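Customer escalation, tier 2.

The customer says the design service returned an amino acid string that "doesn't look like it belongs to this structure." They asked us to rerun it and document both sides in this ticket. The original C-alpha cells are below, unchanged.
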C-alpha cells in the first residue's frame, strides 16, 4: 500500500472519528483537534468512492458481466438479484443518517434515472454542472438550508465498470444513453453543518 493511500485512509479514519466524537475505544470524548470541513468531506469521499468502486467492480461487474452468475436489479428482492451500486450507496446513506447528524451524503445526477436523484438546490445543480465540465476537480460551497448553514462538497461519480454504462444506457427511464467508462454519471454530495 503506498504512502498516499495510507495517508488518505488515515485522514478518513480521523475524520470519521471526529464526526462520531469517539475515540478508537468507542467511548465518547471531545476531539483533541478540529478538522476543516473540506478535509473532512474529502476524506469521507475517499472511503465512499473506494467502497462503491469495489462493490461495482469486484461484486456486480464480476458476478453479473464476467461470470454471469447473478444479475443486479433495481428490484433485487423480487428478482433475487444483487442490489445496484446506487442502491447500496443509498442504503449506506440512510443508515448513516440514523446514526449521526454530523454529515449527510447522497448520490445525485443531472441525468437521473430516478427523478428523486435530481439536484434540488442551486448549489447541488452548480456543483453537478461544475464537476461534469471540469474533470478531476471537486466543487465546494457554503449554503443555507432551513435556517442552518452547511459546507457542501460535490464529487464526480464516474462509470468504473461495464456494468455502470450498460445499466444506465439501457434503462427505459434514462435521459442519457451514451455513457462510456470513465464518464461522470453524477455526483456525490456531502454536507457538513457549520456554526
Amino acid at each position: 500500500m503506498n504512502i498516499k493511500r495510507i495517508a488518505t485512509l488515515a485522514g478518513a479514519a480521523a475524520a470519521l472519528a471526529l464526526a462520531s466524537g469517539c475515540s478508537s475505544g468507542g467511548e465518547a470524548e471531545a476531539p483533541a483537534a478540529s478538522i476543516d470541513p473540506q478535509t473532512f468531506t474529502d476524506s469521507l469521499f475517499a472511503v465512499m468512492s473506494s467502497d462503491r468502486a469495489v462493490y461495482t467492480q469486484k461484486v456486480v461487474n464480476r458476478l453479473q458481466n464476467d461470470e454471469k452468475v447473478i444479475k443486479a436489479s433495481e428490484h433485487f428482492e423480487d428478482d433475487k438479484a444483487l442490489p445496484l451500486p446506487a442502491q447500496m450507496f443509498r442504503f449506506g446513506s440512510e443508515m448513516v443518517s440514523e446514526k449521526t447528524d454530523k454529515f449527510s451524503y447522497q448520490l445525485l445526477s443531472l441525468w437521473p434515472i430516478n427523478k428523486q436523484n435530481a439536484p434540488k438546490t442551486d448549489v447541488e445543480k452548480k456543483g453537478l454542472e461544475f464537476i461534469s465540465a471540469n474533470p478531476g476537480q471537486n466543487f465546494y460551497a457554503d449554503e443555507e438550508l432551513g435556517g442552518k448553514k452547511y459546507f457542501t462538497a460535490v464529487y464526480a461519480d464516474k462509470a468504473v465498470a461495464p456494468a455502470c454504462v450498460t445499466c444506465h444506457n439501457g434503462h427505459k427511464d434514462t435521459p442519457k444513453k451514451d455513457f462510456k467508462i470513465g464518464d461522470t454519471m453524477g455526483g456525490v454530495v456531502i454536507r457538513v453543518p457549520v456554526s
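Tier 2 assessment: The sequence is consistent with the input. The longest strand covers residues 148-158. Confidence is low (pLDDT under 50) at residues 1-32. Sent an explanation to the customer and offered a walkthrough call.
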